[in-house]
Description:
The protein is of the alpha/beta class. It has nine helices and nine strands. It has helices at 28-31, 34-37, 42-45, 47-62, 68-79, 94-97, 157-164, 182-186, 216-236, and strands at 4-9, 84-88, 104-105, 108-115, 121-123, 143-147, 167-173, 191-196, 210-213. The protein has a six-stranded parallel β-sheet, sandwiched between helices. It has a three-stranded antiparallel β-sheet with strand order 5-4-6. It is elongated and about 60 Å long.
Amino acid sequence: xxxxxxxxxxxxxxxxxxxxxxxxxxxxxxxxxxxxxxxxxxxxxxxxxxxxxxxxxxxxxxxxxxxxxxxxxxxxxxxxxxxxxxxxxxxxxxxxxxxxxxxxxxxxxxxxxxxxxxxxxxxxxxxxxxxxxxxxxxxxxxxxxxxxxxxxxxxxxxxxxxxxxxxxxxxxxxxxxxxxxxxxxxxxxxxxxxxxxxxxxxxxxxxxxxxxxxxxxxxxxxxxxxxxxxxxxxxxx
Length: 237
């Protein structure tokens, strides 16, 4: 039965909260070589530099605050906990800071470390990873940021596609479509809404019933109203 509402977000959700994105002209890709700090295998030959990069990112999110769009998603998830699924490509904690529950992080979470051998997860919060907290207390192997690097398997994708099989309404917020093909995702849903800052050459408008080209921090009211109206319509059908 297709009865799920999926809110799927990318970096554009958090951009107005001041979190740097890879694809901005002054973003993280401009200052670092991706192959050296976030590609499969980089921990084998560039461990310290990679750890330092994610230490910087953890510090960066510590004082950032959720914006209106994060709060809107949290409100809807609280109001409709069984209907709405919140799935994000973001590794920050702004949805959690907005008190959003059960967020599915497709690409990992900055506030966690993972054992490189046994995959045990450790919560590090905003701490720096250094020699004092880089060894697994279960198997004595090295820890790494719990982030999915380019070229690595993403275990939560299985959960994503399982939920898409039940998707009635898909709301996509702030993603370029470069990492995950949102055109493909839209075909799972009966109705789709897109919110991006501007058009993308690889996202086809005909796949979406509604499109808002503006900051998520200002589009949130329209999106919230759309979701509420859709739920009401479905309940009255």
